[in-house]
Design goal:
Family: Belongs to the MCTP family.
Helix content: under 10%
Subcellular location: Membrane
Structural class: mainly beta
GO cellular component, one term: synaptic vesicle membrane
Strand order of the largest sheet: 8-7-10-11
Number of domains: 2
Protein name: MCTP2 protein
Keywords: Calcium, Membrane, Metal-binding, Repeat, Transmembrane, Transmembrane helix
CATH class of the largest domain: Mainly Beta
Distance between the termini: 41 Å
Shape: globular
CATH topology of the largest domain: Immunoglobulin-like
């Protein structure tokens, strides 16, 4: 019930500078659980923004009245990676020892924001739901930790996909929950949900 909503949400996207990416934003209106209406879109050219500073952007919505106010910071990030299983980070014993030293008890208060990081090996899924008429699915896996999100590639026409990928996340809140969701890629349509598991970090 507002024409001037304030969300005050922060999201982290992992941007690789060798790509020319646009940040696409859509504003939607909900009437009820079933009906949604697009109120407008806007775009941000990430490569055109200055690095390491807060950019205050007021973006007019295309073909619709209104504008969106947002703060965007493009900054180097550490601790985020996607790799194949054969070149897994922390596979080197000396690297593991350095990490253990970095997060040992005596260094707990050296950097309060550096809580640690989580490494997840996504190996495979078994006996997935068939989402296509062919009796197969085109599954990919999405990992979310707080407002961080990484995903695997899609394995086409397969109910027992193998991804064999290693994901590394920096941890910002030890009370966060790792959510792992499997979707079926469906072309230009939104992906179909195939299943989900939630793992609290405190249980690891």
């Amino acid at each position: 019930k507002s024409a001037n909503p304030q969300w005050r949400e922060q999201f982290d996207f992992h941007y690789f500078s060798d790509r020319k990416d646009m940040l696409d934003i859509e504003v939607w209106r909900k009437d009820n659980k079933k009906h949604e209406e697009l109120l407008g879109t806007c775009h941000v050219d990430i490569a055109a923004l200055p690095m390491k500073q807060t950019n205050r952007l007021e973006l007019p919505l295309e073909k619709h009245p209104g504008s969106l106010l947002m703060l965007v910071v493009v900054a180097p990030c550490t601790g985020v990676s996607i790799s194949d299983l054969c070149v897994c980070p922390l596979g080197d014993p000396s690297e593991r020892q350095q990490i253990s030293q970095r997060y040992c008890i005596k260094n707990s208060f050296r950097d309060i924001k550096d809580i640690g990081f989580l490494q997840v090996k996504v190996l495979k899924a078994v006996d997935l739901l068939a989402a296509d008429f062919s009796g197969k699915s085109d599954p990919f896996c999405v990992l979310e930790l707080g407002n961080d999100m990484l995903q695997t590639h899609t394995v086409y026409k397969n109910l027992n996909p193998e991804w064999n990928k290693v994901f590394t996340f920096p941890i910002k809140d030890i009370h966060d929950v790792l959510e792992v969701t499997v979707f079926d890629e469906d072309g230009d349509k939104p992906p179909d949900f195939l299943g989900k598991v939630a793992i609290p970090l405190l249980s690891v």
